[in-house]
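My current task is to audit a protein record that another person submitted. I need someone to confirm that the token line plausibly describes how this chain folds. Take the sequence as given and treat only the tokens as open to question. This is what I was given:
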Amino acid sequence: MGATDVIAFFQKTFGSKPAHLVQAPGRLELLGNHTDYNQGLVLALAVDKHIYMTASGRVDGKVSWPPPRLASANASTSIFSQKIRRRPGLIT
């Protein structure tokens, strides 16, 4: 799935073009998983896979709970199909 497909999926799902499109490269850690932030050595490899993400802000400028609507082109169910309980300290 390329950038054009991701934008088309966003438009189909949310009814408008996304404000942002970002791409993150794939990375594989052969050795040293979770040691890099403890000054350990890591043998990381670049792979020819990547992930795209699109996003748009709300038109009313508010931040609210429950979380914003999310959709995945590769997931078989909604990301937020289950209710999430509020916890102290979260933005509501």
